[in-house]
Amino acid sequence: MANSIMVIFPYRYQDIWMFDDEKVELVQEPFVEGMPEIIDLFVQNIQNAEQGFKLFFSATPFPKYQAELVWVREECGGNWYRWEEHQLEGWLCPALFKYFFDAPQSIYCKAEQSHAVED
């Protein structure tokens, strides 16, 4: 059985949000088409988020989730999701299916600082 709550560690490289996940054989997987703007807003209060942060996500709500991305439509093998609270849409590429069998109707997310930051 797959985990209900998953975590990845996005970071910014060459001005692109991306992540690595050896468990599913992804290296420097970029976020594109609206997702960088969503991430920028999502991590605005996380110090040094560009160096990496924790991103928890699940198809079901979990305590203290910060955002619900709602499925909008399929396109080019990926899926568009909308963050209603901020009226933003972003496209998740087919790498989504490394984590979910089908595109979930909602993806619940929470971002946290990935390590202690010295002042």
Structure in words:
- It is a single chain.
- This protein is mainly β.
- It has one domain (6-113).
- Helices cover 7% and strands 43% of the residues.
- The chain has 1 helix and 9 strands.
- The protein has one helix at 35-42, and strands at residues 6-8, 11-13, 16-21, 26-30, 53-58, 67-75, 78-83, 88-92, 106-113.
- It has a 6-stranded antiparallel sheet with strand order 1-5-9-6-7-8, with helices on one face. A 3-stranded antiparallel sheet has the order 2-3-4, with no helix packed on it.
- A hairpin with a 4-residue loop joins strand 3 and strand 4 (26-30).
- The termini are far apart.
- 20% of the residues are buried.
- The mean pLDDT is 93.
Strand content: 35-45%
Q: Alpha-carbon distance between the termini?
A: 41 Å
Low-confidence stretches: none
Shape summary: globular
Order of helices and strands: EEEEHEEEEE
Number of helices: 1
Bin the helical content: under 10%
Mean pLDDT: 93
Count of domains: 1
Q: List the strand order in the largest sheet.
A: 1-5-9-6-7-8
Q: What is the SS-derived class?
A: mainly beta
Instruction: State Rg.
Output: 14 Å
Reported for the largest beta sheet, the result is: 6 strands, antiparallel
Number of strands: 9
Please outline what is shown here.
The chain has 119 residues and is mainly β. The protein has one helix at residues 35-42; strands spanning 6-8, 11-13, 16-21, 26-30, 53-58, 67-75, 78-83, 88-92, 106-113.
